Amino acid sequence: MQCKVNSACVNEMLILLLTIISGCPSSPELIPQPISDFSLEHIDELIENGENLRALPLIASRDRDGKYTEGRYMRALEGLGDEWEEARKVKDWRKSLMYLRSFRTLGEEKRISEISEQDLLLEGVYSYLDANASGAALALIQSELELDSIDAKDRENLARRFELLGYKQFVSELRGKSRTEAPGLESSIDGTVTVWVNRGIKLVGNVGVPDRGIGSGFFIDPEGYLLTNYHVIESMVDPTYQGYSRLFVKTDDETGNRIPAKVIGWDRNLDLALLKTEMEVPYVLTYSNKELPPLGSTVYAIGSPGGLAKTLTSGTVSAYPRSIQPMAGSLQIDVPINPGNSGGPLLNKDGEVIGVVFAGVLSYEGVNFAIPGAYIKKLVPLLFEGGEVQLPWLGLSAWDATGRIKVTYVAPDSPAADAGLLPDDVIDVIDGFQFSGIREVQEYLLSRTPGTLISIDWLRMGERADGIAALGVRPSIPLETALMNDARENLITPLFGLKVQRINGYGLNKRYRITSVLPGSVADEAGFRAGDSFLLRRWIHDEEDDVVVIQMVLKGRRAGFLESAIQIATHLNINTIL
């Protein structure tokens, strides 16, 4: 199975979609909601319920605005201290890390000075090793820890444990030696499998044919854990899928043996899934310890195009980053990719993993994409936790504006709303770091757990402001959730790039004046300009394809303000969400 991206034909696809859904009824308008509840009653309720991480940003926002909170900060802080003690008592290293980072954001590190962030990360490494999840332990070290910062005793202890598990190259690194034994491509091929999903029989016309999905995967742990793409195994975990679905892996085409597998964890945003098999693992692939491969460097993909197992193809790195997925950036490669390659490893010349193949452009030869290895290593420990991965989010949409991150939308009752952010604010600093674009912020947030407090500095009409936010859990499609909880006119800017001002009208017959158009947005490419006005006639949300369409009567300056009927469409799962 392969997810095909045909960006060159997006407009044609949307036109076709409009034809199909033009008769779909539009849902009723929603009443605008307050962006967040800063009342003392709400803060008291959160503190009473032990939701101190939610209460503290609201308290900070009231204090910033000069509003009275009467000791509530100290009450919430004491409650947070109790939560920290409980997390330490049960040795929950991940929650402990969340509280440690939150205390640091508040400037209250002295309350937990006996332990460091590195101590907790090492706790996590040892807990994964004790649970026979060495693949998670390795990824946690490589994504979060600097080997030079680990003391000699721990390094040697870890080296012994990883040595027993066969991680020769990584053991060399732990002991301060160079990677002398590159696995090579031939060995790496042995660590790949065909992922096979049997969905029974489907009807094509009046004929029943087998409904099978084919992808690729590769082992990352000697206990039988392997990585693939989420879209390959989606029917196994999608609660809306009601049909038959069984998951197997095949190690070769000769025997045809099918080995049962189960899904352990998955993430829709980065299109990754962790599977588990009960079999003897022939070879475990290792991650590259280097940064992104340079443009033009030779890379290799191993997969099962058309079901032909262990097929090796090669090509070069064409570009990075590409905004293909909802979060972060993708590697563009010209390695030959076909249906069945999805989920297979992308390797360097030494046979080390530098990415996971996930998509190709159907209409163009040699335009294919892979998830970079840095994101994979961050997600693997979370996949080992089981179930759907909970990624953090701030609850806003933003736009890259010449090196500035400008807020275009804030979801009601989101972490960003609790912090006090508003549309048109310009984010300047997060946790003391300056970021020049949305992708950089997304990458930073991937290293944080939902619930963690972060500090934010922003500019509002030239004036500086600051606040704190408790990161929430990112919805599968954030703006789809926003459609159900906010007024539609608030979503015109993040979805279409139109900043508007209502002139008159009611219901779905409102007239708006366009005050500005975001460069490079759907509206910009469609030719909308500031000063145009339009009557909004219909709003259509196609849930099956995650597309939103608006139909309007436009009075454009370029057309001499003559009225013309126009409709524009956009996908809901956009990549401007933080």
Structure in words:
By secondary structure, the chain is of the alpha+beta class. Helix content is 29%, strand content 31%. The protein contains 17 helices and 27 strands. Strands 8-9-10-13-12-11 form a six-stranded antiparallel barrel. The protein has a six-stranded antiparallel barrel with strand order 2-3-4-7-6-5. Strand 18 and strand 19 (433-434) form a beta hairpin. Helix 3 runs antiparallel to helix 4, helix 4 runs antiparallel to helix 5 (93-106) and helix 5 runs antiparallel to helix 6. The two termini are 30 Å apart. Mean pLDDT is 86; it is low at 1-34.
Topology of this protein?
Layout: E1 3-4, H1 10-21, H2 40-48, H3 52-64, H4 72-89, H5 93-106, H6 117-130, H7 134-144, H8 152-164, H9 168-174, H10 184-190, E2 192-204, E3 207-219, E4 225-228, H11 230-237, E5 246-250, E6 259-267, E7 272-277, E8 298-303, E9 311-322, E10 330-333, E11 345-347, E12 353-360, E13 368-372, H12 373-384, E14 387-388, E15 392-393, E16 396-401, E17 404-410, H13 415-419, E18 426-430, E19 433-434, H14 438-445, E20 453-460, E21 463-470, E22 472-473, H15 478-485, H16 492-496, E23 498-506, E24 509-517, H17 522-525, E25 533-542, E26 547-555, E27 563-571
Parallel strand pairs: 1-12, 6-14
Antiparallel strand pairs: 2-3, 2-5, 3-4, 4-7, 5-6, 6-7, 8-9, 8-11, 9-10, 10-13, 11-12, 12-13, 15-22, 16-17, 17-18, 18-19, 18-20, 20-21, 23-24, 24-25, 25-26, 26-27
Helix pairs in contact: 2-3, 3-4, 4-5, 5-6, 6-7, 7-12, 8-9
